[in-house]
Amino acid sequence: MNWALILPPLMLAGSNVFMNLAWYGHLKEPNKALWVAVLGSWALAFCEYCLAVPANRIGSKAYSLAQLKTMQEVFSLAGFVLVAWALFGQKPGLAQLAGFVLIVAGAALIFKGN
């Protein structure tokens, strides 16, 4: 089994869930002090980095930098949709879904390229 192909996408997906929680999770508690939100977000971002940095290090053996960045962006959008839906009940509309499909199509071009 080639872990350099398998682990990076899994780790990048997980890292982006943490990052989206760091960016938006504090909005569930708008009355908390801003410094508490920042510290909590930094703690989540640390978890994100603990997954993203090794994912890129391992993934660079099997993927180009453009492919790694593209995976990260696609997972960032997917993580955002999950967090927005799970925490805030904001389901993506048809226009948003169409935009995400176009982004995934762009990602497919990057993976098909040279």
Termini separation (Å)?
Answer: 24 Å
Helical proportion? over 70%
Main sheet, how many strands, which sense, barrel? none
Percent of residues in β-strands: under 5%
Structural class estimated from helices and strands: mainly alpha
Give the number of helices: 4
CA-based shape? flat
Order of helices and strands: HHHH
Quick one: how many beta strands?
0
Report the mean per-residue pLDDT as an integer: 93
What count of domains describes the coordinates?
1
Return Rg in Å: 16 Å
Keywords for this structure?
flat, 114 residues, single chain, 4 helices, mainly alpha
Describe the structure.
By secondary structure, the chain is an all-alpha fold. It has one domain (3-112). It contains four helices and no strands. The protein has helices at 3-24, 34-59, 65-88, 94-112. Helix 1 (3-24) packs antiparallel against helix 2 (34-59) and helix 3 runs antiparallel to helix 4 (94-112). The radius of gyration is 16 Å and the shape is flat. The two termini are 24 Å apart. The model has no long low-confidence stretch (mean pLDDT 93).
